């Protein structure tokens, strides 16, 4: 039985314009979680230490999301939760629309499963992750890697959401020439606030618009065709309502497009903005987006990333 497990989980970007709550991609930015069994009879059930730029903002008690996911898996197995030490190394900014909560959920579940002897397969772990997160677009690519489209099976009811094989997961090819450039601002936007501004109902015309553009997005990512991507990244379900929550959104978007981006979207619930760019224009788009936000008095961390193809990975120590 393993005594120590280290799990590394990639950041994710979700929605990608028209793919609201159903498509996401793993990015080459990571959080790391080390789980070590404590001797039975330890003073507490969990000891948590956090390092990284925003470490002081992460709870180090039983309410920590990594530990909550860890406990969830043992409860699923109907086993006693072992005392554990968790060391968290942060590399994914918090509350910025890059899936930091998804890394915590996936890290906790994978770590617990490994310490328990891997009784659950990847699909079962994935379904637990979706149940904890509430939707699949971040946790699925964080676990599996790559770009993933998730669809629920026909006839599913909400109360059946933890049943096996509820979800169909389709991997979406991502051409290497399409570079995701992220602009991570120095302010936050909560997912709850971003969801609050969304309308309860949308028109048939808007639903059809997004359906067509999601199909085009999948083909554009697969082929790297810029003309398809320029059209495909448009959206009518969430971005028109959320962009008002992000200061300087229009200026940053205009700058990105002028510098050669195919398009710009809100990453997840925001406020990080994601531009899809040809390799040759990536540096210019980075510079343009950064300058546009500086004009608004906002500092942003700029990163040209790649798609992580592995997803969550773990190593076991005795």
What would your notes on this structure say?
The protein is α+β, with helices and mostly antiparallel strands and 318 residues long. Helix content is 33%, strand content 25%. It has two domains: 4-173 and 307-317, Ribosomal Protein S5, domain 2 (2-Layer Sandwich); 178-304, Alpha-Beta Plaits. The chain contains ten helices and eleven strands. Strands 1, 2, 3, 4, 5, 6 and 11 form a seven-stranded mixed beta sheet that branches. Strands 8-9-7-10 form a four-stranded antiparallel beta sheet, with helices on both faces.
Topology:
Blueprint: E1 4-14, E2 23-37, E3 46-51, H1 65-76, E4 84-89, H2 100-115, H3 122-133, H4 139-144, E5 147-152, E6 167-172, E7 178-185, H5 191-196, H6 204-223, H7 226-232, H8 239-242, H9 249-258, E8 263-266, E9 273-278, H10 282-294, E10 300-304, E11 313-317
Parallel strand pairs: 3-4
Antiparallel strand pairs: 1-2, 1-11, 2-4, 2-5, 5-6, 7-9, 7-10, 8-9
Helix pairs in contact: 1-2, 2-3, 6-7, 9-10
Key features?
globular, single chain, Alpha-Beta Plaits, four-stranded antiparallel beta sheet, seven-stranded mixed beta sheet, Ribosomal Protein S5, domain 2, alpha+beta, 318 residues
